[in-house]
Design a protein that fits this description.
The complex is a heterodimer of chains A (about 550) and B (about 180). Chain A is mostly helical. Chain A is about 65% helix and about 0% strand. Chain A has a two-stranded antiparallel sheet. In chain A, α4 runs antiparallel to α6, α6 packs antiparallel against α7 and α7 packs antiparallel against α8. Chain B has about 180 residues and is mainly alpha-helical. Chain B has one domain: Four Helix Bundle (Hemerythrin (Met), subunit A) (Up-down Bundle). Helices cover about 75% and strands about 0% of the residues of chain B. Chain B is built from 5 helices and no strands. In chain B, α2 runs antiparallel to α5. The chains are: A mainly alpha (about 550), B mainly alpha (about 180).
Chain lengths: ~550, ~180
C-alpha cells in the first residue's frame, strides 16, 4: 500500500520537474543544464590550456592530450560555451523565468511549446555528448566548421563526430526557435494591464530583441548546415570547388549568423546589468528610449558586418572596405549604450552589492573587448592580427563578460526570487574579485602573445622556433595558471549557491527595494506567480522621485 | 489573462515562424544564385532539362489550392464553420496533395533521366530547394489535416491559413528561379 503511494508520489515528482509546463521550472531546467554544460566547457579549457603552457604534460584528471583530442577540445569548448552555456542560461533560463514575472502574467503564451523547446535542447545535449563517444572521436574542425575540413571525413578524420556535432547544433537551434516564438508572442500579447511598450523593463526588451535577432539570423546557418550535412552524408558538392560548389559560401552563411549571434548573447546580460545598476544606484535609467533605439540600430547594423570575419579569406578588397566601415560604425550605438549606463551611475547613491560589482565589471571588461575589436574591424590591421591570439583575447574579453559575468549578475540579483533565500554577500565579493582578477591575467597575456604572432589552433608551439622562447612560454604559463585560479575560485560560488539554498537568510518579497513586477510576487513565486494579477501605472525605473517617503516607486502601486 | 492583443497569439506565433522560414528560403536562394553566377554553363552540359510546362500546370494547382483556402476563410469569417467552408477546406487540402504527388512523379522521371543529388551541383540545388519546399508542403498538409477539428477557433484557422499561404506563395519564386532560367 505504502509502496504504491510512494510510486505515485514519484510519478508526481517526475511530472513536476521533468515534464512541467511551468515557465519557472523550465527556466530552472535550462539553468542547471546550462551550468552543467558551462562546467564541461570549463574543464575543456583547463585541459587544453595545460597542454599549451606545458606541452606533453599528463594533465591531472585527463591524461595525455593527443592532437586529435586537442582539436576536439578547442572546437567543443567554443561551441559549448556559446550554444550550450551562454544561450541556454542567458536567454532561455532567465528569459523563461523573468518574462512572465516581469510583465505580470501567469505563464508563457504557449507553455507546451516551451516544454518541447527544453526537451529538444536536452536531446541536443545528448547528441553532443554522443559525438565524443563514436569511433574517430569528437569533431575537431573548430566551432566555425569551415569546409572542406568539416565536409570530408578524409580531412577531419571524424566520420561520425562531425555530422553528430552538426546535428546537435541544429537541434539546439530548433529549441531556441521555439523558445523565441514564445518570448516574442508573450511580450506582445500577455503584458499586465496598463503596461505600455515603454514600461517594459529593459532586460525583457533585451531578451526579446535578442530572440528576434536570433530568429532573423539563424535561417542562413540552418540552410548552410543542411547543405553541409548533405556534403558529409551523401557526397554532394555544395562546398566543393572542384565540382562546381563554393567553400566561401559556408563562411558567408555561417558569419551572417555568427555576427548577430554576438549581439544575441550580449543583449540579455546588458539588460540584466541595467536592472542591477538602476536598482543599486537608486536612479532612473538615463535615456530609456535612447537606449532602446541604440539597441535597435545595433541589431540592424549587426546584419551588415559579417564579412569582417573573412578579410583574409579571399573576398573582394572593395567589399572588405565596405565591411570595415560598417564594422566601425556599429561601435557608435554601442558607445552610446555605455555612455547611458555611465550617465545612470553619475550622481547615484551607489551600493556595491555583489550583483552591482558584477554589473560594473561586465561594463568595464566589455568596453576593453569592444575597443580591441577596432583593430580587427579595420581590414588593414586585421591582415596581421587575423587568427592570432589577439583575436582570441579580443573575443574572450567580450564573451567572458557576456556569458560568465552576465550569468553571475543574473544569479546574484534574482537568486532571492528564484529560491526564496539570500546569498552570502561576503562570499559573493570574494568570488567577484577571485573571478575578475584572474580573468584579466588570462587574457592580457594573450593580447601580447597575439602581437608576437602566436597563431591560433596550434597544438604545440615547440615546433615553431620563433614561438618557442622562454618569454612567450612565461606568458602562456601565466595565462594557464590564471585559468586554474579562476576556475578554483568558482568553488566559492558553488559553495555559496548550495549553502544558500538551504541555509541562506529567508528572502522577503522585495529584498533589493526594486520597482519591477517580479518583486511583487512571493519569493519563490508559486504556480501562477501572483496572488492577484498586478496592474501597471508607470515605468520600471522610478527611483528617488521627490515628494515620496520611499526612494522607490513600484510599477504596480497606484500612487 | 492574455488580454490586450492586437494579433491573436497563434497567428503571431506563426508569423514569427514564417519570418524564420523566409530567411531560410532566402539563404537557399542566395546560395543558389552565388553558385549559378559563378558557373560557366548553366544548366551544366549533359544534364536533363526540367519539365517547364507540366510543372507550370502543377503550379496552377497549388495556387488554386491557396486561393481556395483564402476564399474559404473569407466565408468562414462571415458565416462560421459551416458545410460549404468544410467542402472548400477539403478541396484545398486535396489539391495540395495532388500537387505533392505530381511533384513526386516528376522527380521519379528526372531521376530516371539521370538528374540526381550527386550528378552535378545543378542537381544538388534542384533537389535541395524543391525538396525543401516539398517537405514544407507535406508538413503544412499534415497540419491542415491535424487541426481540422479545431478550426472553429478563428485564431487557429487564421494561423493555418497564414502557413499555407506562405508555402503556396513561396512556390512561384522558386519556380521562376529554378525552372525558368
Amino acid at each position: 500500500m505504502s509502496e504504491s503511494h510512494s510510486a505515485h508520489y514519484n510519478e508526481g515528482l517526475i511530472k513536476k520537474y521533468l515534464f512541467s509546463t511551468d515557465h519557472k521550472i523550465i527556466g530552472m531546467q535550462y539553468l542547471f543544464t546550462g551550468i552543467f554544460m558551462g562546467l564541461t566547457g570549463a574543464f575543456m579549457v583547463y585541459v587544453f590550456r595545460m597542454q599549451l603552457a606545458f606541452p606533453g604534460i599528463h594533465v591531472p584528471g585527463f591524461g595525455l592530450v593527443s592532437q586529435a583530442a586537442y582539436n576536439a577540445l578547442v572546437t567543443n569548448h567554443g561551441a559549448i560555451m556559446i550554444f550550450w552555456f551562454a544561450m541556454p542560461v542567458l536567454i532561455a533560463a532567465f528569459g523563461n523565468f523573468l518574462i512572465p514575472l516581469m510583465i505580470g502574467c501567469d505563464d508563457m503564451v504557449f507553455p507546451r511549446i516551451n516544454r518541447l523547446s527544453y526537451q529538444i535542447f536536452f536531446l541536443s545535449v545528448i547528441v553532443l555528448f554522443a559525438s565524443f563517444l563514436v569511433p574517430g572521436g569528437g569533431f575537431g574542425g573548430a566551432w566555425t566548421a569551415y569546409p572542406p575540413l568539416s565536409a570530408k571525413a578524409e580531412y577531419n578524420l571524424t566520420p561520425m563526430g562531425a555530422p553528430l556535432w552538426l546535428i546537435a547544433v541544429a537541434l539546439e537551434f530548433v529549441a531556441f526557435l521555439l523558445g523565441g516564438i514564445n518570448f516574442i508572442t508573450t511580450l506582445m500579447n500577455a503584458r499586465a494591464k496598463g503596461m505600455k511598450m515603454y514600461d517594459v523593463p529593459m532586460v525583457i526588451w533585451m531578451i526579446v530583441i535578442a530572440s528576434l535577432l536570433f530568429m532573423a539570423s539563424v535561417g542562413p546557418l540552418i540552410a548552410g548546415a543542411i547543405m553541409l550535412l548533405f556534403d558529409q552524408f551523401i557526397g554532394t558538392s555544395f562546398y566543393d570547388a572542384a565540382k562546381g560548389g563554393d567553400p566561401m559560401l559556408w563562411q558567408h552563411l555561417f558569419w551572417f549568423f555568427g555576427h548577430p549571434e554576438v549581439y544575441v548573447v550580449l543583449l540579455p546580460p546588458l539588460g540584466m546589468a541595467v536592472e542591477v545598476i538602476t536598482t543599486f544606484s537608486r536612479k532612473k535609467l538615463f535615456g530609456y528610449k535612447t537606449f532602446l533605439h541604440s539597441v535597435y540600430i545595433t541589431g540592424i547594423l549587426s546584419f551588415v558586418v559579417w564579412a569582417h570575419h573573412q578579410f583574409v579569406a579571399g573576398i573582394d578588397p572593395r567589399m572588405a572596405n565596405l565591411f570595415a566601415i560598417t564594422t566601425l560604425i556599429i561601435s557608435v550605438p554601442i558607445a552610446e549604450i555605455c555612455f547611458l549606463v555611465m550617465a545612470t551611475l553619475y550622481g547615484g547613491s551607489i551600493s556595491f552589492t555583489t550583483p552591482m560589482l558584477f554589473a560594473l565589471g561586465f561594463i568595464i571588461e566589455f568596453i576593453i573587448g569592444g575597443v580591441t575589436g577596432i583593430f580587427l574591424g579595420a581590414s588593414g590591421t586585421d591582415i596581421f592580427f587575423h587568427d592570432t591570439y589577439f583575436v582570441v583575447a579580443h573575443f574572450h574579453y567580450t564573451f567572458v563578460p557576456i556569458a560568465v559575468i552576465g550569468f553571475f549578475i543574473g544569479i546574484y540579483y534574482w537568486f532571492p526570487k528564484m529560491f526564496g533565500r539570500m546569498m552570502d554577500e561576503r562570499l559573493g565579493k570574494i568570488h567577484f574579485w577571485g573571478t575578475i582578477i584572474p580573468f584579466n591575467l588570462i587574457f592580457i597575456p594573450l593580447f601580447f602573445l597575439g602581437m608576437y604572432g602566436e597563431h591560433r589552433r596550434i597544438y604545440n608551439y615547440q615546433h615553431f622556433p620563433e614561438l618557442n622562447t622562454p618569454g612567450l612560454y612565461f606568458l602562456r604559463e601565466l595565462a594557464t595558471v590564471s585559468t586554474v585560479v579562476m576556475l578554483a575560485f568558482q568553488t566559492v560560488f558553488f559553495y555559496n549557491f548550495v549553502r544558500s539554498l538551504w541555509k541562506g537568510k529567508k528572502a522577503e518579497r522585495n529584498p533589493w527595494k526594486a520597482n519591477t513586477l517580479e518583486w511583487v510576487a512571493p519569493s519563490p513565486p508559486p504556480h501562477g506567480n501572483f496572488e492577484k494579477m498586478p496592474e501597471v501605472y508607470r515605468g520600471p525605473y522610478e527611483y528617488g522621485v521627490p515628494g515620496r517617503s520611499t526612494d522607490f516607486w513600484p510599477q504596480n502601486e497606484p500612487n | 489573462m492574455k488580454n490586450n492583443s492586437v494579433i491573436s497569439s497563434p497567428v503571431l506565433g506563426v508569423i514569427a515562424f514564417i519570418f524564420v522560414e523566409t530567411m531560410l528560403f532566402t539563404s537557399f536562394i542566395s546560395a543558389f544564385w552565388i553558385v549559378r553566377s559563378g558557373a560557366i554553363n548553366w544548366p551544366p552540359m549533359g544534364q536533363p532539362r526540367l519539365p517547364l510546362l507540366t510543372t507550370g500546370f502543377n503550379s496552377l494547382i497549388l495556387l488554386a489550392s491557396g486561393f481556395l483556402l483564402y476564399t474559404g476563410y473569407r466565408l468562414f469569417s462571415k458565416r462560421g464553420f459551416e458545410e460549404r467552408v468544410r467542402k472548400i477546406y477539403f478541396t484545398s487540402l486535396i489539391l495540395g496533395i495532388i500537387f505533392f504527388l505530381f511533384q513526386g512523379y516528376e522527380w521519379a522521371r528526372l531521376i530516371r533521366f539521370g538528374l540526381t543529388m550527386t550528378s552535378s551541383i545543378y542537381g544538388s540545388f534542384f533537389y535541395l530547394i524543391i525538396g525543401f519546399h516539398a517537405v514544407h508542403v507535406l508538413a503544412a498538409l499534415f497540419i491542415m489535416a491535424f487541426f481540422y477539428k479545431k478550426l472553429e477557433k478563428k485564431g487557429v484557422f487564421s494561423a493555418v491559413l497564414a502557413l499555407w499561404l506562405f508555402v503556396v506563395g513561396v512556390w512561384p519564386i522558386l519556380y521562376g528561379l529554378v525552372y525558368l532560367k
